[in-house]
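Tutorial handout. Part one gives the primary structure; part two gives the three-dimensional structure as tokens.
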Amino acid sequence: MLSGKLLRLIETHSEQITDSVLRLIRADSEITHLNSLADAELFETWNHRLSHLERWLVPAQRGALALDEENVAKTRFADGIPLHEMVYAFHLLRNQTISYVRNLAPDDNYIELYAEGELERWLANFFDFLVYHTPCAVTNKRLRSARPTPRFARPRPGKVKQGNGRQTYRPSISLLLC
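Part two.
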């Protein structure tokens, strides 16, 4: 059972959580590409996630969340933000959200401690979902933009096995992982 009280705590304090993530990003000298974006743009994107968290956690909203995240990821990719910086920002947002709940939520009894644990599990699934759909959008964008129009059929990587008078294609492991 997920605590509505904890979700409302996150949603009402989403601006403070987002601001703390923004400060962490700005303080990190290795995050050069995200630092090139305006504060308002990053703040709006991350605050949108947290301020509507209860809506996003509804299983029926998974498709809308995936589409929304893929659109944001495509925009970030077009802005020149590398994938590792996008994923790192999600980890920071998740960790800051959990820290905020731990610091503000009362944990006077076992039920409240259980509710915090459940919230952490739901948040982990939520951010894992976002982290999954970010590379999906970026990879599809990269494949479409990097793929030249073929003039002739190129042989695919893999091995052609000959036997019984006919050839069969065995794909390489790299094709199976894509």
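Part three, for discussion. The chain has one domain: 4-177. The two ends are 36 Å apart (CA to CA).
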